[in-house]
Write a structure and sequence with these properties.
Blueprint: E1 3-14, H1 16-24, E2 36-42, E3 45-51, H2 59-66, E4 70-78, E5 94-98, E6 101-108, H3 129-144, H4 151-166, E7 172-176, E8 181-185, E9 190-195, E10 200-202, E11 209-211, E12 221-226, E13 237-238, E14 243-248, E15 251-256
Antiparallel strand pairs: 1-4, 1-12, 2-3, 2-4, 5-6, 6-7, 7-8, 8-14, 9-12, 9-13, 10-11, 14-15
């Protein structure tokens, strides 16, 4: 299975720390060796980098780990191919335009029969079920709304469409329109929000730690999402299965889950004991 990484922040933020941990899983501590990609949403544009080579050994990944590309929203993906050959065209995140905005999308899982679903406007370039699902999702939004709808209306529509895809198999996905980051959990997706007072964080997959109190300003809010927790000493939270969470400026603005799953998600890491400083929200 593939792995995902996403970020939503209220100030332009670089993703190098988390990206380093993810890239180690792409050929060093994990077997996700069939390509990687990352998309940075900046202002009204979107920078996308793809490489079908293993991220742990890719010169492009090394370059990106050294460059402080700052954005408020970013999506990354490491691939372990199950459908579609290893190629640039089949490497996530995928990108399309809708309503004058760049949308990006990355997916983990398999969707049985999705390629039989008709497409009206968008077409896949590669051969993955993931890209077909992305094209179908944007097709449906385009047919429902002539222009960008109100935020609440758009979020409800995205949740409904994600659940239709979820019914076909495994649909862990990150989607962004440049203003919001949508995260749908089929069976595995976790998130972490860092805000003042900031503390230390240590990667699980690499010998690297950061003191965020030296890197962030008091008002900064940064949420990181990943298939599996990337740090060993922070309280990651699991998203509920079948739930869509929407983030804007680092804050979770909506969680749309089936009625039986509306309880708060369980912590994946221990919570601070009494008297300990909180490292994250």
């Amino acid at each position: 299975m593939c792995e995902l990484l996403g970020m939503s922040a209220n100030v332009p933020t670089d993703l190098r720390f988390s990206f380093t941990g993810l890239m180690h899983r792409a050929g060093r501590t994990g077997r996700h060796t069939d390509g990687f990609g990352i998309a940075f949403h900046q202002d009204d544009g979107c920078r996308v980098f793809h490489d079908p080579a293993p991220g742990a050994h890719s010169p492009l990944a090394h370059f990106l780990r050294e460059q402080p590309i700052r954005s408020r929203i970013a999506l990354a993906h490491i691939r372990r191919a199950n459908r579609g050959r290893v190629s640039v065209a089949n490497t996530h995140p995928f990108q399309r335009e809708l309503w004058g905005r760049w949308w990006s999308f990355a997916h983990n899982g398999q969707l049985r029969g999705v390629k039989r679903w008709p497409l009206a406007y968008y077409r896949p370039v590669g051969t993955t079920d993931s890209e077909h699902a992305f094209c179908w999702l944007l097709d449906q939004l385009r047919q429902r709304f002539e222009t960008l709808p109100k935020e609440a209306t758009l979020c409800r529509a995205v949740a409904e469409l994600c659940r239709q895809l979820h019914a076909l198999g495994t649909f862990n996905a990150l989607l962004s329109d440049g203003a919001r980051l949508y995260a749908f959990c089929s069976n595995r997706l976790a998130y972490l929000t860092r805000r003042a007072p900031f503390g230390h964080a240590r990667l699980i997959d690499a010998t690297l730690q950061v003191d965020f109190s030296q890197e962030a300003a008091p008002g900064d809010i940064v949420t990181v999402l990943a298939t599996r927790p990337l740090t060993a000493d922070e309280p990651w939270q699991a998203l509920a299965r079948g739930a869509l969470a929407v983030f804007r400026d680092g804050k979770r603005i909506l969680t749309d889950a089936p009625p039986a799953q509306r309880a708060a998600p369980a912590a994946l890491r221990r919570r601070p004991r009494a008297g300990e400083a909180r490292q994250t929200a």
